[in-house]
Write a structure and sequence with these properties.
Pfam families: Fasciclin. The structure is a single chain. The two termini are about 50 Å apart. By secondary structure, this protein is of the alpha+beta class. A seven-stranded mixed sheet has the order 2-1-7-6-5-4-3. The chain is built from 22 helices and 28 strands. Helix 2 crosses helix 3, helix 17 packs across helix 20 and helix 18 crosses helix 19. About 30% of the residues lie in helices and about 30% in strands.
């Protein structure tokens, strides 16, 4: 059925549409931003601040403007006095129209800085703009006004109430020169200011444009000779030119070049957050010289995001670039920094007696894998934290004699030897490097725990400190969990998944000893048994793969360490027979001494398994799990006959499929004809 509108009905419809549009236009032009604020439950608190501010009220009544409005949550979180005029600008701008800098209405018209990141997010100073809540209106006085809702209060640089000198809208040098007049809490900047003056680098801090300045506070110069190390290059290393970096708008993955970036010296800077959301900045001297050591220096940001007329200032707890403490002194300095990234690690060292610091000092060159504060909060750590002897063993597992930076770790991985001995008996740490230079991830395994290095190469005069995200030596996962997360064991995990062999390995009521071939071990079989290797990872041969893995899995009332197996072999003076998932395993285990690295004389006692006339090296012994132990081996216990290439089940299965298909075709043909 077709419905036709009469000409009279159409006229009524048009008149109604015109009236509706007219009413909407009246509402659009008559509403003010003040009305919008009052009716928006997200920002009603800021509405009250404007209502009681006569200047802001007048602006909204009479002028065009842009208004940045903090949410109620932001207003209630902020402890200081909120300056409404710093949230206003006299030029109306939509999100697209926002320029890099906007003069605010606050006294002296200090700039607001706009940042657009690669995610498409937009920030004003350190506040994120919720673009879906942005509103544009035209007042009855034909004034265009724009409102942007932000997630933080905008805070200008202000003078102390006691200041007798009037300073408005200072640049970075004027701020540094007269820092005692400004509200920067208890922080004092006199030492660094003296060095900038002595080195005649004032012009760097006076540079017009938009830059980022890191300024160390006086507390960071407790080392008596540290201030003398702040030379012209070090000062350059505290400035990022032509980029205004407010912390919330930055990605921790972004690396920024400093003013100290030329042929003879190259220094970059990154932001870094620990798990407690504390902000740090780390400088990395990629190319150094006799006065400037390569490596990372980590500094906590004490007061961030101080806007000045030529950029932004961040106050940090110590100078960047300067490497002037030993590893022991670095750890001892943590007692003065209650909020430091490694505060809990230092506390654990002191709780077990503090002798570890003396051990570290006696080693000469040394490298520490230091767990972050958050890493110590794991429930499995809480269960043993009171056991001093156990905790001392665990701490020692994090200490390597010698200087081991990421570059040396990468070189070791190239040589297929990513392992270094710790000072804990015969315990080793095993490193793995994944990704490329722009997205490189370094992991370390020790005592059954895989950790990621989250801050590498913190340089000291006698070594390095790497911050890791887990405590080594305290297992937190089952045998299955270990296979699933260890990048070196992915092939064994994958083979166990499609054969359903892995299902049992999560059982915490059993105790497993599992000889696990690492990925490179399976790759070796590709050359020895190419046809077998190909079928190991085919689902049609899942039964055969399962049988091979059952040979590698011991199930008993207790676990077998490699030392125990070697002692059993020596006592038996012959092969030992061990209970596996299927039948038994007949092996010998021998100890052998090997050189660890080509570039030094470090040796270690390793283990070799003798099975079916093969010598299989144990690459990583005694990887502890919550329901057993893993021994990572360099070759699988595998023979060519383990998978039947022709005439076996795969061929029978294929032949059956062909016969069945032919039978179906014949049946169809019979019915058709």
């Amino acid at each position: 059925m077709c419905i036709r509108s009469s000409s009279g009905d159409w006229g009524v419809f048009v008149q109604t549409l015109i009236i509706s549009c007219f009413i909407a236009l009246i509402q659009f032009t008559s509403a003010s931003l003040l009305d919008k604020l009052q009716n928006n439950y997200l920002v009603s608190d800021f509405h009250e601040l404007i209502r009681t501010d006569p200047v802001a009220n007048s602006t909204l009544q009479l002028r065009s403007c842009t208004l940045f409005v903090p949410t109620n949550a932001a207003v209630r979180k902020y402890n200081g006095t909120i300056l409404v005029s710093y949230h206003m600008a006299t030029v109306p701008m939509t999100v697209r129209q926002l320029t890099k800098t906007i003069p605010s209405d606050f006294e002296g018209n200090p700039l607001l800085y706009i940042t657009r990141n690669r995610k498409g997010e937009v920030y004003v100073n350190n506040a994120w703009i919720n673009q879906t809540e942005s509103t544009e209106i035209v007042t009855q006085e034909n004034k265009r006004q724009v409102m942007h809702v932000i997630n933080d209060v905008l805070v200008p640089l202000t003078l102390l109430p006691t200041a007798r000198t009037q300073v408005t809208n200072p640049n970075a040098w004027e701020f540094l020169q007269q820092s005692d007049l400004f509200d920067v809490q208890e922080n004092r900047l006199r030492t660094y200011r003296s060095q900038v003056t002595l080195m005649r680098k004032e012009s760097l801090y006076q540079s017009p444009g938009g830059h980022t300045f890191f300024i160390p506070v006086d507390e960071g110069f407790k080392q008596t000779t540290r201030s003398s190390l702040v030379d012209r290059k070090v000062i350059d290393g505290h400035v990022i030119l032509n980029s205004v970096l407010f912390s919330a708008a930055q990605s921790t993955e972004d690396t920024h070049t400093t003013a100290a970036f030329e042929d003879n010296i190259k220094v970059t800077v990154n932001f870094y957050y620990d798990n407690d959301k504390k902000l740090y900045v780390k400088s990395n001297t990629l190319v150094g010289d006799s006065k400037h050591s390569t490596g990372v220096v980590l500094a906590q940001v004490l007061k961030a995001n101080i806007p000045v007329s030529n950029g932004v200032v961040h106050l940090i707890h110590r100078p960047l670039m300067i490497v002037d403490t030993t590893v022991k002194q670095f750890l001892e300095s943590l007692v003065d920094n209650k909020n430091g990234a490694l505060r809990r690690f230092y506390e654990v060292i002191m709780e077990i007696g503090g002798e570890v610091l003396d051990d570290i000092n006696s080693l000469g060159d040394v490298t520490i894998l230091a767990p972050s504060n958050e890493a110590w909060n794991a429930s499995n750590i809480e269960n043993i934290i009171g056991n001093r002897e156990k905790m001392r063993d665990i701490v020692n597992m994090h200490i390597i004699k010698g200087r081991v930076d990421v570059e040396k770790i990468k070189q070791s991985n190239e040589n297929m030897i990513g392992q270094f001995p710790t000072i804990h008996s015969s315990t080793f740490l095993y490193f793995n490097v994944n990704g490329d230079d722009t997205n490189e991830v370094v992991t370390v395994e020790g005592g059954g725990v895989n950790a990621t290095i989250i801050v590498p190469d913190i340089a000291q005069t006698n070594g390095f400190v790497h911050i890791i995200d887990r405590v080594l030596g305290v297992p937190y996962t089952t045998v299955l969990g270990k296979l699933e997360t260890d990048p070196m064991l992915s092939d064994t995990y994958r083979m166990g998944q499609f054969s359903s062999f892995n299902d049992q390995l999560n059982n915490t009521q059993r105790r497993f000893t599992y000889f696990v071939p690492r990925d490179r071990a399976w790759q070796k079989t590709q050359y020895d048994y190419p046809s077998v290797y190909k079928k190991l990872f085919m689902k049609d041969f899942a039964y055969h793969s399962r049988c091979i893995m059952e040979r590698h899995l011991l199930i008993a009332d207790d676990i077998y360490t490699m030392k125990t197996l070697a002692e059993m072999t020596k006592k038996q003076n012959d092969s030992i027979i061990l209970p596996t998932f299927r039948d038994s395993l007949k092996i010998k285990v021998e100890e052998e001494v090997e050189n660890l690295h080509d570039d030094d004389s470090t040796s270690w006692t390793g283990y070799v398994i003798l099975w079916n006339y093969k010598r299989i090296r144990v690459f990583r012994p005694d990887v502890e799990c919550t329901n057993g132990i893993i021994h990572v081996i360099d070759y699988p216990m595998l023979e060519k006959k383990d998978i039947v290439v022709s005439g076996g089940s795969y061929q029978l299965h294929s032949n059956f499929c062909i016969v069945f298909a032919n039978f179906i075709i014949l049946a169809i043909a019979k019915n058709l004809f």
